[in-house]
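User: My collaborator sent over this chain with a note saying "see what the structure looks like." That's all I know about it. Can you take a look?
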Amino acid sequence: NYFFVKAVNTAREGGIIAFITSTGVMDSPGNRNTREFLSANTNFLGAFRLPNTAFKGNANTSVTTDVIFLQKNTTNPSSNYNFTNNVDVFVGSNDKSVSVNEFFAQNPNAIIGELSSLRGLYREDEMVVTAPKEMNVAQEMIQRANDLLPKNIYQKGSPQKQESNIDDTVPPDTIYVKDGVVQFNNTLGVA
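Assistant: Without extra context I'll predict from the sequence alone. Here is the result:
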């Protein structure tokens, strides 16, 4: 979550931010404050949930992963999608439910593969996305991006010096919550 807040605070207004991250950012109830910070400071452009085999070949890991696209907009953030809450969805033929981010529940085409509940790395009945071995995940994501992501939003600009919000009572370069708002104590004023 540190890197999300730091990226938003470092990006220029209107800049595009993309993250490859665990599903916890979008799904975990404990990360709702982070999603609310993103909602208040960016336009949520969309996201993709990749199958658990997406990084098996180059990182030798099997983990369901999200790719999240944001555009910094601190003056009037808006989005065509809701993404701060979670909902339960039923998966598979066994009527099991898993908790997923509302964006993925409302946009199943953003899930590259099939949402299911399997024995995962940490617990029984973990949400995973599986895909056929022959599926070209990158090609699927590119094809689906044409339908999911907004068009013509990038505007060329030059980096701007960020104003720093320094709070001497908080350690340097720390994310904290003050008055219910996620803050970043950017003492150096750099990324």
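A starting point for your reply to your collaborator: The first strand starts at residue 16 and ends at 22.
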